[in-house]
Specification:
Rossmann fold; 16 strands; binds histidyl-adenosine monophosphate
């Protein structure tokens, strides 16, 4: 029987995983600089967290969730995104009471969506995301956006496009909603059945419909920008001003509709416009979600964040021709010959490693020439040769692979000698 990997998932093998690690490390370093701390939440949650009494009308929540009943008959869902979980933890663990405010968190881990797999779209993908909870200052919107942009830039990406929009506050959104209903209602019969349902529940989602996107009413639909009240407008202007101060260029796109329902005020996406990136160009998405904590049973708390997937990050790096992390090589390869030397090398290898060196030895009974080849493959800086003869004389030969120089060292002081070399 041969069993294959599930559709839309990936094995990340050595050789590829180094780039993942490099991105993850960069993300952690940047979060440290920006003062975001890591949070780890479960991979499955109560379904209700995401559907919120079917308050969420998006495809992600309605059509793409991996939902199952556990053995106790409870409905559970593999998380399709991280924001709801972070906000749940924030509410449940009363983080709103912490001395350090706003609460700035980041996470990294797999998310699950039952989507049609294609290049850049997976059923399991890894998101890196940040959430800042407790501040209504537009400067933090700009900070969150700049963190994402800087992560991409530090990894070498150049062909980035930032698109922003404002979805306004509750009042603005209600006015816009009414306008959308007025606009679509007379001809709603020409739209798909999903859109017909969306009309009353969440007409904004019609604008995001893939099936009806070419309908003429889509182009003439009322734009949220025209329905922003003074406060929302002022907020959006401030965000733009701060982005300007950070020298981050952007485009305002009044048609930017995010794929989740909890957004208000700032919404943004970062796209790649590298040639050959493929059909899916969105690398990162985020925005403000001021009502979410309340919906989950917490106090009124403003929040903003973003998430990006490492898969699309890597695709963008490849599209821009940015190479993988370099193989840094190992400090020492122990070439061993003879039974006694092999036994001795077990302890010696351990001493080297505990002293902080990366070290490897032969485990395949290879001849000395083949062991040197193996050392080369690992880019070993030194090869230490230990045969039964050396062992008898209490010495070891150490070869510098860059210069070819070889010296004899007393076996007892080998690790100390190695430490001095560095
Ligand atoms: P989202 O736009 O649904 O937002 O996803 C964010 C990012 O996750 C996307 O821009 C993309 O990089 C990646 N992504 C989404 N679906 C897939 C997929 N099927 N395969 C590969 N990558 C994918 C959220 O998830 C929000 N929680 C973001 C957020 C945080 N908003 C506020 N805070």
């Amino acid at each position: 029987m041969s069993i294959s990997i599930p559709r839309g998932t990936q094995d990340i093998l050595p050789g590829d995983v180094e780039l993942w690690q490099q991105i993850e490390q960069k993300a952690r370093e940047l979060c440290e600089k920006y003062q975001y701390q890591e949070i780890r939440t479960p991979i499955f949650e109560h379904t209700e967290l995401f559907s919120r009494g079917v308050g969420d009308t998006t495809d992600i929540v309605q059509k793409e969730m991996y939902t199952f009943e556990d053995r106790g008959g409870r409905s559970m869902t593999l998380r399709p995104e991280g924001t709801a979980s972070v906000v749940r933890a924030f509410v449940e663990k009363k983080m709103f009471g912490l001395a350090k405010q706003p609460v700035k968190l980041y996470y990294m881990g797999p998310m699950f969506r039952y989507e049609r797999p294609q290049s850049g779209r997976f059923r399991q993908f890894v998101q890196f995301g940040v959430e800042a909870l407790g501040s209504n200052d537009p400067a933090i919107d700009a900070e969150v956006i700049s963190l994402a942009m800087n992560l991409y830039k530090e990894m070498g990406l150049k062909k980035l496009k930032l698109i922003i929009n404002s979805l306004g506050d509750k009042e603005s959104r209600l006015a816009h909603r009414e306008a959308l209903i007025q606009h679509f209602q007379p001809r709603i019969g020409e739209f798909c059945s999903d859109c017909q349902n969306r009309l009353k529940r969440n007409p904004l989602r019609i604008l995001d419909c893939k099936q009806d996107r070419d309908h003429e009413l889509m182009k003439t639909a009322p734009s949220i920008i025209d329905y922003l009240n003074e406060e929302s407008k002022a907020y959006f202007e401030k965000v733009q001003k701060y982005l300007g101060l950070l020298h981050i260029s952007f485009e305002v796109d009044p048609n930017l509709v995010r794929g989740l329902d909890y957004y208000n005020h700032t919404a943004f996406e970062i796209m790649s416009d590298a040639e050959g990136f493929g059909a899916i160009t969105t690398l990162c998405g985020g925005g403000r979600y001021n009502g979410l904590a309340e919906e989950i049973g917490g106090p009124e708390t403003p929040g903003i964040g973003f998430a990006l997937s490492i898969e699309r990050f890597i695709a963008a790096l490849k599209a821009e021709g940015i190479e993988t992390a370099v193989n840094e090589g190992i400090d020492c390869y122990l070439a061993v010959l003879g039974e006694e030397a092999k036994d001795y090398s077990v302890g010696l290898l351990q001493q080297l490693r505990l002293a902080g060196f990366s070290a490897e030895r032969d485990y395949l009974n290879r001849k000395i020439k083949a062991q040197f080849k193996a050392a080369d493959r690992l880019h070993a800086r030194y090869v230490a040769i230990l045969g039964d003869d050396e062992l008898k004389n209490n010495v070891i030969h150490v070869k510098n692979m860059a210069t070819g120089e070889q010296v004899e060292v007393a076996l007892d002081s080998f690790v100390a000698y190695f430490q001095k070399l560095q």
